[in-house]
Structure to design on (245 residues):
């Protein structure tokens, strides 16, 4: 929904590079119908580029390139018929665990594009080897994009951790759902703080269900959203990269 004469509210973000839209393979969309509803909501909000990012983690979501490709192919076929100008590709949200280390060593990561890899860590406890895994990615010439830094509660009292990761050139990807208050006040506040500091370099929705879309509308009304749209984001870089190639 948008007022007449105004751009749809997600137009300036340009693309969603973190969303659990592939049907039936993680805790995201359960079926093709919901996946299509999620894409329809994106389309109406002004998004024409989506990177589906299912979880890959050894303890819960043992997805492989094949399981992700199969779910993508199913959705892509339907989506292309309905919205020929919507581009949908797949990548993964890699949990930083032993399995990710194996994928790094065997060169089997699923990047967002180019060398940019979306990673996440535990939101409840500090993972002991997280920094070492990030270092290994960088040694292997990957560019880590850290999903939802505002959601790692153990870091909320540790601003040094954010500074340290920034020094390592890790790109912080904020969730619009955080800015819209879906996870609670601490996550929303941290998202706002990271945006105000100019520390956010990428934006994703991290949508798992179409019913969560209302929080994206709330996010767009947050004053920090304007600030976010005014900086150079990986989202814009992706669109430029694809326009060139
Ligand atoms: Fe996610």
């Amino acid at each position: 929904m948008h007022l007449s004469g105004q751009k749809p509210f997600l137009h300036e973000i340009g693309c969603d590079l973190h969303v659990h839209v592939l049907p039936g393979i993680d805790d995201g969309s359960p079926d093709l119908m919901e996946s299509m509803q999620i894409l329809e909501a994106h389309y109406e909000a002004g998004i024409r580029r989506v990177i589906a990012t299912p979880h890959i983690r050894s303890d819960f979501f043992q997805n492989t390139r094949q399981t992700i490709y199969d779910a993508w192919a199913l959705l892509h076929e339907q989506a292309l018929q309905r919205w020929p100008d919507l581009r949908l590709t797949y990548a993964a949200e890699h949990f930083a665990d032993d399995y990710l280390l194996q994928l790094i060593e065997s060169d089997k990561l699923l990047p967002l594009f180019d060398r940019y890899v979306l990673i996440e860590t535990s939101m409840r406890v500090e993972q002991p080897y997280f920094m070492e895994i990030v270092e290994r990615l960088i040694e292997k010439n990957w560019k880590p994009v850290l999903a939802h830094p505002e959601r790692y509660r153990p870091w909320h009292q540790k601003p040094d951790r954010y500074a340290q990761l920034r020094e390592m050139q890790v790109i912080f990807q904020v969730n619009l759902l955080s800015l819209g208050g879906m996870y609670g006040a601490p996550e929303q506040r941290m998202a706002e703080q990271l945006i105000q500091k100019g520390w956010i370099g990428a934006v994703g929705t991290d949508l798992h269900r179409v019913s969560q879309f209302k929080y994206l509308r709330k996010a767009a009304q947050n004053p920090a959203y304007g600030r976010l749209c005014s900086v150079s984001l990986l989202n814009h870089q992706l669109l430029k990269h694809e326009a060139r190639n």
Residues 65-82 form the longest helix (18 residues).
